[in-house]
Amino acid sequence: MSAASLYPVSPEAAAQSLTDEATYKAMYQQSVVNPDGFWREQAERIDWIKPFTRVKQTSFDDHHVDIKWFADGTLNVSANCLDRHLDTRGDEIAIIWEGDDPADHREITYRELHHEVSKFANALRGQDVHRGDVVTIYMPMVPEVAVAMLACARIGAIHSVVFGGFSPEALAGRIIDGNSKVVITADEGLRGGKKVPLKGNVDEALTNPQTRCVQKIIVVRRTGGDIRWHPHRDIWYEDLMRVAGDVCAPKEMGAEEPLFILYTSGSTGKPKGVLHTSGGYLLYAALTHERVFDYRPGEVYWCTADVGWITGHSYIIYGPLANGATTLIYEGVPNYPGVTRIARIIDKHQVNILYTAPTAIRSMMAEGPAAMEGADGSSLRLLGTVGEPINPEAWHWYYETVGKSRCPVVDTWWQTETGGILISPLPGATALKPGSATRPFFGVVPGLVDNLGNLLEGATEGNLVILDSWPGQMRSIYRDHDRFVDTYFKTFRGMYFTGDGARRDEDGYYWITGRVDDVLNVSGHRMGTAEIESAMVAHRKVAEAAVVGVPHPLKGQGIYVYVTLVAGEEPSDQLRQELQQWVRKEIGPIAVPDVIQWAPGLPKTRSGKIMRRILRKIATDEHDALGDISTLADPGVVPQLIETHNQMR
Ligand code: WT7
C-alpha cells in the first residue's frame, strides 16, 4: 500500500473526537471477547422502562437461528427519540426541513416534534391502529414522515415505509405482504419541481382486490393538487390533527417487539420484509451514529438518503433523534434547481456532517468544479458515503472538492439487514484508504470464506460473512422465518452471509468488491435480477428475459436486459420503449433497463439454467473471456448474441 493513498488521522482530530486509536482497539477487543459486558454497558444510553437482565441470546445454527438482545427489557423507541430530550434540549432543533423549492424550509424543535408525534399517535389510535398492526407509509420527504414513523413507534404499531418512487404495483405487493391496516400518504410529492401522484398511486394500488386489509388512507396535504377522494376511506391528516389530544403515554414495548419492516430485494423471489425490533436496533443505530459520525451536540447533520431506505430509517430518523441531534430532511433532488443545490443547502443550514452516496458524488463530479462554485462549505467537518463501493476517483473528488482536504471521509458498509453500519472508519481512530470501508465496528466479527465455506486467514479475498450477532441485526423476514434462515444462514452454515465479496489487505482493512449473488446495485439501490426479469416476462410480448449488471459511469451499475420475444413479435425501437415503460409501471423508475438487447435465444445449461456469467461478459465486451461454452444446450446462440451486441454499440 503506497503512502500516497493513506490518510492518517491528524493528532488534533484524534484529540477532539470521541474515539482515538487506542480507544477503538480497547473497545473493539472488549466487544468481541465479552459481548455481554460490552453491550450491557453501551445499553445505558437507552432509557429502559424495565431494565433487561439478559443481554445476548443468539444462535446462527442453521437448524435453530434465533436472535434476541436485551429480551426481557422494555422501552419505547419514540420516548427515547423525543420525551427524554425535553428537559435538556426541548427547544433545540430536531429537524431542519429543506423543501424542493429553495424558498421552503422549516425548523422543528424537539418539543414541537414531541407534540406532533403525540397528537398523531392519538389520531392513529382513533383509527383503530394498535400494537402489532402494520401501517404502510408512502410519503415524500416532509417532516410528517418522521411524525408518522415515530407515532407508530409510540403506540407499538409496526411501520412499513415504501419508497415514494415505487409504482402502484410494487406498493400493492408490500401492502398485501404486510397485511396493512392503514396507509399514510400525501396528495402529491414534489421533486425537482415535478409532482409525484402519491395519493393517485395509492388509489391505484388499492384496486388490487388483495389489498382489502386496508381500512383507511391518511393524506397529508403537500401540494394541494387535485386528487380523487373516497369519503369512507380517506381522511386528511390535518383534520385528524385538529381534534387529536396532545397527551399520549408511550406504550411499553418489549425489546424484541417489532419496530418496523422494510422490503428489500434479494437474488430470488419477491422482495423480503426485513424485520427489525426495538431495543437492539435503536441502541445500534444510536451508537453507530454517534461514533462513526463522531457526532457532537449542537452540530447539524445531513443524510441525503430517502426514508424509504434503511439509511433513512437508521441515519435520518432513529440514530440522530435518539442522540438528540439536529437532522436535516431534504425533500428534493441533488441537482434542482441547479447543480449547486447540495452546496447551497450546506451553506444555508451550516451543515457539519454530510452523508451521501457515491452516485450523488459522481453526478456532482460530472459537473466539474461547477457543483461547488461559489460555495463556502467551511461548516463541513466530516463526510460520509454509503450504498456501493466508492471508486477512488470519486473519493478523492469528494475529499478535495467538497471537503477541501480538511474532512475525513467515512466509507460505511452495511445493509438493510444489518440495521446499522458494520464496517467503517472512525474519524479519530482510523487512517483512511480511498475505496476501503476499513475496519469493523464494535461487536462486529467479519470473516472471508471460500466457496466451500472455509474461513480464510490473512490478506486475501472471499465471500464476506459475519460470524456473530450484533444488536442491530434483522431478526427475521416478516412472517417467513424459514426464508430468513435459508437466505442468510444456509449458504455457509453457522455464519451470516452478506451476499457481498470483499478483500482484506495486509492491515486488516476490508475492501468491498460488490455483490456475488444475482443482486444489482443501481445508484445505490438494490435490485434483484429475478424481480426485473419477472416484470419483463409479465409483458405479453416477452417470452423470456435475462438481466445482468454492467458498469455505469454515474449509477455504478446499469441494467442490461436480454429479451426473447414470443413467436410472431418483431423487435422495434417502439417496442423497446414500451418495455421500458412497462418496467417503470411494474416496479418504478429505478428499475428501468438502460439497455435492452433482442435475443433470439439465451445461453442455458442442459438443465435449463440461464448462464448469466456469459451474458455479463457479452454485455461488457469481454468476448475473449467467455470460458467453456461447449456444455451449453445451444452454444450457437453465443456468437449471435455477440454480433447483435456489437451492432448496438
Ligand atoms: C448493499 C446493501 C446500507 C445502506 C444502503 C444500501 C452495498 C452498501 C457499501 C459500501 C460497498 C456497499 C453492498 C451491500 N453497499 N454500502 N460502503 N461499500 N458496498 O442498503 O439496499 O440493503 O444494500 O449495498 O453490496 O450488500 P441495501
Written description of the protein model:
- The protein is of the alpha/beta class and 649 residues long.
- 31% of the residues lie in helices and 23% in strands.
- The protein is built from 20 helices and 30 strands.
- An 8-stranded mixed β-sheet has the order 12-11-8-6-7-14-15-23, sandwiched between helices.
- Helix 11 packs across helix 12 (310-322).
- It is globular, with a radius of gyration of 24 Å.
- 52% of the residues are buried.
- The model has no long low-confidence stretch (mean pLDDT 96).
- It binds 5'-O-[(S)-butoxy(hydroxy)phosphoryl]adenosine (WT7).
- 5'-O-[(S)-butoxy(hydroxy)phosphoryl]adenosine is lined by residues 264, 310-311, 386-389, 411-416, 437, 498-500, 512, 515, 521, 526.
